[in-house]
Amino acid sequence: RRYRNDVDLFLVDDVHFLEGKEMTQEEFFHTFNALFEGHKQIVLTSDRPPKEIPGLEDRLISRFEWGLVADIGHPDLEHRIAILRKKAEQDHLELTIPDDVLRFIAEHVRSSVRELEGCIIKLLLFASLKNREVTIELAREALSDKIRQGEDASSYGGQPTPSIDRVQEIVDRRWGV
Q: Strand 9-12 vs strand 41-44: parallel, antiparallel, or unpaired?
């Protein structure tokens, strides 16, 4: 409460976690109003639109909708590769994870930035525990649970859509192209 007048920008990530937390929502309501009336910038993020957050009070939903509600969507392949590369650089791992492995992960894990980052952590832990170098084969093994959950797994009889590399490999093997 005491900080309401001291901020110019209020950033809250994952407001969907307010669902069902009555006291927190009460305080958030008053904080939002004070900041809004003070013409402060308010930026909220969620994994879904305000109306789709169960257990979120109607008065908060209406306030959240006073501003712009934008569906950012999932990153495309090039952005997923860039995200993975940036994460590897931030953690000083760019020499540990080859580009072809980053591309493989980006082609098969299509949901969220957090899941992509989690794949890097899981892959490196798996490589460390197995005392193996990071390769596509290791990534396939380490991330098998993530790879099967591709966005379009149902479009190929429950199998993920084949990657460009896989299609090229099969065409090359079959026709020598």
A: parallel
Is the pTM of the predicted complex or chain greater than 0.70?
no
Q: Are residues 52 and 108 in the same domain?
A: no
The structural domain count of the chain equals 2
Residues 98 and 57 in one domain: no
Are 73 and 79 contacting, i.e. CB atoms less than 8 angstroms apart? no
Q: Residue 31: which domain range?
A: 9-64
Contacts of 31 (CB under 8 A, 6+ apart): 1, 4, 10
**What CATH number should be reported for the domain holding residue 105?**
1.10.8.60
Q: What is the pLDDT along the chain (177 residues), one digit of tens a residue?
A: 666 678 888 999 989 999 889 999 999 999 999 999 999 999 998 888 999 999 999 999 999 999 888 887 788 899 999 999 888 888 776 667 899 999 999 999 887 888 899 999 899 899 989 999 999 999 999 999 888 554 444 444 444 556 666 666 776 776 676
